[in-house]
Amino acid sequence: MTANIGLFPGSFDPFTNGHLATVKRALSIFDKVIIAVVTNTRKNALFTTQEKVDLIETAVADLSNVEVIAAPQKLTVDLAVSLHASALIRGLRNANDFEYEAGIAQMNKAQNPDIETVFFVADQRYTFISSSMIKEVAAFNGDISALVPANVEEALKYKIQHQSV
Ligand code: ADP
Predict the structure, then answer these.
(1) How far is the CA of 11 from the centre of ligand 1 (A)?
(2) Is the Cβ atom of 14 under 6 angstroms away from ligand 1?
């Protein structure tokens, strides 16, 4: 039987406990989850793509059947096909996410009707977590220890000390 692979694309700047919870839940449905770090040209990234890949790899090290890649510059549905993924994985925190994500999912469906998008409604504990808010709070030395994996917290502190966020 062919493995049921889910592709979780995102900016992950940085990867949070909300993203991690989504990966764990996706593993109950998919045989394998591939996390693809996408370079989002509209967002000014704090971490480089390679830094993000390294941080996520460490954060998911204790999970089996998870792979982390830097997404090549191509359509997400084309990437899914090339990785033999049957579905895209995304998370929904609120109505804003829904509107934004529904548009992306419909556009992806129009590009390739064979690729489905599967949504995970955010865990209540993490609904308020966004990568951008994490960066803001971290910049002012706020406590983010419960919101991001420990290695991400460490990397954020390092960035803040060595460059402006
Ligand atoms: P993108 O720039 O592609 O939106 P993000 O890294 O911001 O990348 O988010 C990737 C996916 O994870 C999106 O579907 C987003 O809605 C979801 N997500 C972000 N934060 C959370 C969270 N706290 N809980 C669950 N899903 C989340």
Answers:
(1) 8
(2) no
Taking the C-alpha atoms of residue 134 and residue 148, their distance in angstroms, rounded to an integer, is: 8
Beta-bridge partners for 120: 91
* Omega within 30 of 0 (cis) for the link into 14: yes
pTM (two decimals):
0.95
| Cα dihedral across residues 14, 55, 48, 138: positive or negative | positive
Nearest CA to ligand 1 atom 10: 10
Q: What is the pLDDT of residues 114-160, one digit of tens each?
A: 999 999 999 999 999 999 999 999 999 999 999 999 999 999 999 98
| DSSP summary character for residue 88 | E
Nearest to 20, CA basis, from 62, 51, 50, 48: 62
